[in-house]
Write a structure and sequence with these properties.
- The complex is a heterodimer of chains A (about 280) and B (about 700).
- Chain A has about 280 residues and is mostly helical.
- Helices cover about 75% and strands about 0% of the residues of chain A.
- Chain A has ten helices and no strands.
- In chain A, helix 2 crosses helix 10, helix 5 crosses helix 6 and helix 6 packs antiparallel against helix 8.
- With about 700 residues, chain B is an alpha/beta fold.
- Chain B contains 25 helices and 25 strands.
- In chain B, the strands form five sheets. An eight-stranded mixed beta sheet of chain B has the order 17-18-19-14-20-21-24-23, sandwiched between helices. Chain B has a seven-stranded mixed beta sheet with strand order 6-7-8-3-9-10-11, with helices on both faces. Chain B has a four-stranded antiparallel beta sheet with strand order 2-1-4-5, with helices on one face.
- The interface between A and B is medium-sized, with 18 and 27 residues.
């Protein structure tokens, strides 16, 4: 656990790491307790207060049905952030596994896996996700799976290129000369040296996942109304944009905040996970 | 003091950077001058701030400056504090720099001609036509063959030595007053470096340029500099005329540097290398009275710590030490004998633990496309090598980069497939299995690369125990790791550390400990001491000898540094372009016969030795392409003793002398014996 503590210490020493960690912890608390913290029922209509601007009664205003926006954003945080994290996790694990194995094998196998990967990467990830969703059918969970799969090829490329660099080091040759098995070389020798760029990339991808999820919901393929998912909130609010900006602005800022937090955390982690820097 | 004869005058110069833990002293109280037409050598171990001094003169400070004081005068005018535009007029024009790595100094997208032309144009020689022919003249001047064709080539199309010549041409192009050399030959092969040094000496005589020559290699500096300054911890501790400094070093630090440097006369005199390393100088915190106090064996607090020890100015041989030379002379015998065990290598028992029979390694595959175009892409890295290694013996494998010595090492470690036969203790090895791997271990050149940065030392040392000694319990393994660390003279608590927390020499010790864990019969040491400071190198060789004496392990010691061989090897095998061209006993190293290539290689290794004079043999000509099957002798194109057509068309015969000395050459061994020895003794050895 000392390795984890050291990384944590190095992380909070950089300003972006400290801020990123703080914001991400707050977001994590929101996903856990957000719905309970909501001051009102997120789905209750207040016809007397439609399109209300922020006030004491409704701190962030209301939408076209008079629903409290603060409560909706808080209630929606769990599904939005949690689903984005899950999608990233699927993409990262699958991509890293494919990339490291391919980079380690090298030669023809690597050539074959990577050309297949390139073909998938040629399809824009949103389009790719739409394709997958059209097969799986639209639901929040399917959207997560679709985004995870769409993220995999990019992650595989990054993991492979780092693996190729790591493979050139003599510790891999030393392990082979020692007669170590493939599993040890991949899991113990390569993985710890490859993991940090992958983690950094993953934190940045969380923001992408939030936005892609929002886009899918916006297109009506993810969460379904009246769910307070942030992307869906923006999609619905679009029709009333000229009556009041608040229904779009509030979830929009929330998405941006998540993106920025995870990007900052990613930047901080990149420095903190550098083994030479933490000495 | 202020004579305008000095091209460079550094007065009371100090520099410090802001580091994580406060102010870090980089250079401290530097007083140096370089006269017009003089070459000043600057020597010191890694971390002594040699390069920082060059950067300071170039006004290219790499850190965040906390404090800078003193003067750097270029031909009498102060350059500290000049702005960037003023400095740009000076850089290249008046001060040029030649760095270690020529391949990074050249832009891969520009032709060599464009590099020189650009340098000339940057500094005011504008006319387009004249510039190109001028550039050609400069390429001719640095001895590049066919300058007109060279102008059109790119950096990747020429060899490392030629690249360094291009950089030299660029440095000379603007006729600067001062050239700074920062380890210019360290990355080159010995024979190439030797010709480059000759070239520089010739050019320096012709143009009369002044130079600051920075190197960790005292041998190189001794052959080029008029005066030498010794730097330790950012302070100059001694300077003197070159001959005087190397024959009568006064400062304890200079003495320790020279004491760990191998000499050609060592076999004759039975001299031992000093292994006591120097600690890194304190860079932060209070300034010690004497910068060397922490590592000095003659340190006397009452005498040395009284006042700040400074380098006296205005002397020809200045020493920053309060003690008199007499104090060291009395105890100098103690330093000589500090590592006093027998110079004679341990006795070997004749039972080949490993034998190679017509072993060959080919890289690459022909491929149908190459076959279609008639190209041959197969590299013959190792060609028909026959060798036998006895138990407890050290066989040195020497040769320049690309001669196949590292490929041979990897082959024996089971990393590369081969043709031919490999016989271990009398039984042919059909497949490289776990049993073979346990018996034959390898130590790689660079411990930064061979130790996984994410693993603790304990984990690194435990792995071979898990693999090869499966009977051990976790607790037994732990104690075994402690034993291994003790065997390589490291404290046991290092098991919890990570590689980046250790120094270069300590890391290499860990790598050696890892090889020992399997209790192997053979350890292959692939350039294990290159890149280390001389004292660390001496202590690592000492360690290897101790290990060998304890366990009877056979060592294959691969190196390009011939000087260290006398202190380690029993036999020497010389490789050239994948072929074994000579095999001899270490005692035969001092007198002919030699293979002509070995002769040149021995002559190219510069050494600081007041007892011997080295005969100059330089190689010219180009190497054949590695993909070609060589019909005749591989060395034919560069051989100074080439006989004639038979060298190019017939394979040289393998000649064997009565003592087992093996030479692959057309020239008769009798005739090779009559060649003048490479080393001549300057004074007869007095028998004691």
């Amino acid at each position: 656990m000392s390795g984890f503590n050291r990384t944590l210490y190095a992380l909070v020493r950089t300003p972006q790491g400290a801020i990123g960690l703080l914001l991400c912890s707050v977001l994590l608390l929101l996903t856990l307790f957000g719905p309970e913290l909501a001051p009102r029922d997120p789905e209750q209509f207040h016809f007397t207060a439609r399109f209300a601007s922020p006030s004491v009664e409704f701190p962030l205003g209301t939408d076209w049905y008079g629903r409290d926006l603060l409560s909706r954003v808080l209630a929606g945080s769990r599904s939005t952030i949690l689903l984005a994290l899950l999608a990233t996790l699927i993409g990262t694990v699958a991509g890293a596994a494919i990339g490291i194995v391919s980079g380690f094998l090298g030669g023809r196998a690597d050539e074959f896996i990577m050309r297949l990967n390139d073909a998938l990467m040629a399809i824009p990830s949103l389009l790719f996700a739409l394709l997958i969703l059209s097969v799986l059918g639209s639901s929040s969970f399917n959207a997560v799976v679709a985004i995870g799969i769409a993220f995999t090829p990019g992650m595989a490329r990054i993991a492979r290129s780092v693996t190729l660099q790591a493979r050139a080091f003599d510790y891999v040759a030393a392990a082979k000369a020692r007669g170590e098995g493939t599993a040890w070389i991949i899991l113990a020798e390569l993985l710890p040296n490859v993991i940090s760029p992958v983690i950094v990339e993953a934190t940045i991808r969380v923001a992408f996942a939030v936005m892609t999820l929002a886009t899918l919901s916006f297109l009506g393929l993810g969460a379904q109304p009246p769910s307070p998912e942030w992307g869906l909130m923006i999609a619905e609010g679009r029709d009333h944009m000229f009556r009041s900006p608040w229904p779009i602005l509030v979830p929009g800022v929330a998405i941006a905040l998540v993106a920025i937090s995870f990007n900052l955390l990613g930047d901080g982690l990149r420095d903190a996970l550098n083994p030479q820097a933490s000495s | 003091m202020s004579d305008s004869d000095n091209i460079l005058d550094i007065r009371n110069y100090s520099l410090s950077y802001t580091g994580k833990a406060g102010e870090v002293r980089i250079l401290d109280d530097i007083n140096l001058h370089i006269e017009r037409g003089e070459v000043l050598g600057l020597v010191g171990e890694s971390g002594s701030a040699k390069s920082s001094l060059a950067n300071a003169i170039m006004r290219d400070l790499t850190g965040k400056v906390a404090n800078e004081s003193g003067q750097i005068l270029l031909a009498g005018s102060q350059i500290v504090g000049l702005d960037e535009t003023a400095m740009q007029a000076i850089r290249g024009n008046r001060i040029a720099i030649v760095l270690q790595n020529a391949s990074t100094a050249l832009n891969p997208t520009m032709t060599i001609g464009d590099h020189v032309v650009e340098t000339l144009q940057q500094h005011g020689r504008k006319s387009a036509e004249g510039v190109r022919s001028l550039a050609e003249d400069f390429l001719d001047m640095v001895g590049l063959p066919d300058p007109a064709a060279m102008m059109k080539r790119y950096a990747h199309e020429v060899s490392g030595g030629e690249k360094q010549r291009v950089v030299l041409a660029m440095a000379f192009a603007c006729e600067p007053e001062l050239i700074l050399f920062d380890e210019p030959t360290s990355a080159l092969d010995a024979t190439t470096a030797a010709t480059l040094l000759d070239l520089f000496i010739a050019l320096q005589h012709r143009t009369g340029v002044s130079a600051l020559f920075i190197s960790h290699d005292l041998g190189v500096v001794s052959s080029i500099a008029n005066r030498v300054a010794v730097i330790y911890g950012g302070r100059i501790v001694e300077y003197a005329a070159t001959d005087e400094l190397f024959s009568e070093p006064r400062h304890p630090y200079t003495r320790s540097l020279l004491a760990s440097l191998p000499r050609p006369s060592d076999t004759r005199t039975g001299r031992q290398l000093a292994t006591a390393g120097n600690l890194a100088a304190p860079r932060t915190g209070p300034v010690p009275a004497c910068i060397y106090a922490g590592s000095c064996r003659w340190h006397e607090p009452s005498l040395c710590d009284r006042t700040a020890v400074r380098l006296p100015t205005g002397e020809d041989h200045a020493v920053a030490c309060v003690k008199s030379v007499e104090a060291f002379v009395q105890s100098s015998s103690a330093l000589q004998g500090s590592a006093a065990d027998e110079c004679e290598p341990a006795e070997t028992v004749d039972a080949p633990v490993l034998a190679l029979q017509s072993l060959s390694v080919n890289y690459g595959n022909a491929g149908w496309l190459n076959g279609l175009f008639g190209r041959n892409a197969i590299v013959h890295a190792v060609n028909d090598v026959n060798l036998a290694l006895s138990r407890g013996e050290t066989l040195a494998l020497v040769g320049e980069s690309g001669c196949g010595k590292s490929t041979l090492a990897k082959t024996l470690a089971g990393l590369v497939s081969f043709e031919g036969a490999l016989i271990r203790s009398g039984t042919p090895v059909s497949a490289i299995d776990q049993d073979y791997r346990a018996r034959v271990q390898i130590v790689f050149q660079n411990p930064d690369s061979s130790l996984n940065p994410r693993h603790a030392i304990g984990t690194i040392l435990e792995r071979p125990l898990v693999l090869y000694r499966q009977g051990l319990s976790a607790r037994e393994r732990r104690s075994e790791v402690g034993k291994l660390l003790r065997r390589v003279q490291l404290p046991e608590h290092y098991a919890d550390r990570y590689p980046h927390q250790l120094s270069g020499g300590e890391k290499q010790r860990v790598a050696i400990a890892r090889a020992l864990a399997a209790e192997p019969e053979v350890i292959i040491c692939d350039e294990v001491t290159s890149g280390l400071d001389a004292s660390v190198q001496a202590s690592i060789t000492q360690l290897l000898r101790t290990i060998q004496a304890d366990s009877g392990t056979a060592l294959i010691f691969i190196t390009h540094d011939l000087a260290i061989l006398r202190h380690l090897a029993h036999r020497v095998a010389v490789m050239y372009l994948g072929e074994l061209i000579e095999l001899m006993d270490i005692h035969e190293l001092d007198k002919p016969p030699y293979h002509p290539y070995t002769e040149a290689l021995l002559s190219s290794s510069p050494s600081v030795d007041p007892l011997t004079r080295t005969r100059r043999i330089r190689l010219h000509g180009t190497l054949p392409r590695r993909t070609e099957r060589i019909k005749g002798c591989a060395f034919e194109s560069r051989c100074p003793h080439r006989l004639g057509e038979q060298c190019a068309s017939e394979r040289p015969p393998r000649q064997l002398s009565a003592t087992g000395h093996e030479i692959q050459c057309h020239i008769d061994m009798q005739q090779l014996s009559s060649h003048t020895p490479v080393w001549r003794d300057l004074e007869p050895l007095t028998e004691t």
